[in-house]
Amino acid sequence: MPPPSDPSKDTTRAFLEQAIRLAVDNVAAGGGPFGAIVVRRGEVIARGANRVTAEADPTAHAEVVAIREACRVLGTFQLDGCDVYSSAEPCPMCMGALYWARPDRVFFASDRAAAAAAGFDDRFIYDELARTVDARDLDTRHVEVEGAGREFDAWASNPDRTEY
Amino acid sequence: MPPPSDPSKDTTRAFLEQAIRLAVDNVAAGGGPFGAIVVRRGEVIARGANRVTAEADPTAHAEVVAIREACRVLGTFQLDGCDVYSSAEPCPMCMGALYWARPDRVFFASDRAAAAAAGFDDRFIYDELARTVDARDLDTRHVEVEGAGREFDAWASNPDRTEY
């Protein structure tokens, strides 16, 4: 008799398979090969697929779409108590979005090497972000401006601010 | 007589001041202290301010809002020929969005150290992304799944795909 399977691992795989299925279906619908879901207490509360070209929105990656949808459903900008399952390793934009959304855990199936082999070179962006601003391929410049930072002063002195 | 000022530098500062003003006004409107604009051929085509708490959307950073608006205006998912001006150094999510949107140049006024001093620790996310997945503070797991990558096969064999 085979040993009993680890049920939590099975659940993880089942959710990842849902994300992969979303990605496959999205290709058929004219989108990119990426899917993501947000799960809370064992229930899928939001789904996302890559809509970059379909919606002319470079930020419409599967994870961003799913995070925005989950926040809309929950009425909050924080995803504590949620897990995110993505068909592929989130790119730096999506990982950034995940850090700001603060889910409990993030699971992914294909890693950045597999994505690169398929023509999606998220690795390039990871490498760029590790460089100093002036050493990057994208021309990015820090410019000293008089009055810079006065928005932070306004923030600090606003008693009604909502921290995030 | 003072030496003639460099007009391109003046223009850069003027656009950055617009972004800072957006950030200051946004604090008064109950939002976060960040603003960004997208400029094409010397003309502001899109503006964004941080709407994370106002719209319960953790991805609604000033740059993401401005990028999405610029793409909506231009009807494209690419910002070549455009420059982006941000009141502060874009966080990894926003830099990722900028890499995907591919503007010509990115300018910012306050750097990540100034943002950290104001309580916005984008630096933490930069540090996290430089780590391997299993060494991160956010529990992120690569899980081997049978069928992983079949979405990339579907993509490769779809003759109607739109590359991005």
Structural write-up:
Two copies of one chain form a homodimer. Chain A has helices at residues 7-28, 62-74, 92-101, 112-117, 122-130, 150-156, and strands spanning 35-40, 43-49, 82-88, 105-110, 139-142. Chain A is 41% helix and 18% strand. The longest helix of chain A has 22 residues, at 7-28. Chain A is of the alpha+beta class and 164 residues long. In chain A, helix 2 packs parallel to helix 3 (92-101). The relative contact order of chain A is 0.11. Chain A has six helices and five strands. Chain A has a four-stranded mixed beta sheet with strand order 2-1-3-4. The radius of gyration of chain A is 19 Å and the shape is globular. At the A-B interface, helix 1, helix 2, helix 3, strand 4 and helix 4 of A face helix 1, helix 2, helix 3, strand 4 and helix 4 of B.
Structure at a glance:
By secondary structure, chain A is α+β, with helices and mostly antiparallel strands.
Write the layout of secondary structure elements.
The structure is a homodimer of 164-residue chains.
Chain A: H1 7-28, E1 35-40, E2 43-49, H2 62-74, E3 82-88, H3 92-101, E4 105-110, H4 112-117, H5 122-130, E5 139-142, H6 150-156
Parallel strand pairs in A: 3-4
Antiparallel strand pairs in A: 1-2, 1-3
Write out the strand line-up for the largest beta sheet of chain A, numbering strands in chain order.
2-1-3-4
Largest sheet of chain A, if any? 4 strands, mixed
Structural class of chain A: alpha+beta
Helix/strand order of chain A: HEEHEHEHHEH
Integer-rounded radius of gyration of chain A? 19 Å
Q: Which regions of chain A are unreliable across 5 or more consecutive residues at pLDDT < 50?
A: none
Overall strand count of chain A: 5
* Beta content of chain A: 15-25%
Helix percentage range of chain A: 40-55%
Number of helices of chain A: 6
Largest interface: A-B, 90 and 91 residues
How would you state the average pLDDT of chain A, rounded? 94
Oligomeric state of the chains in view: homodimer
- Measured between the Cα atoms of the first and last residue of chain A, the distance is 52 Å
**Shape designation of chain A:** globular
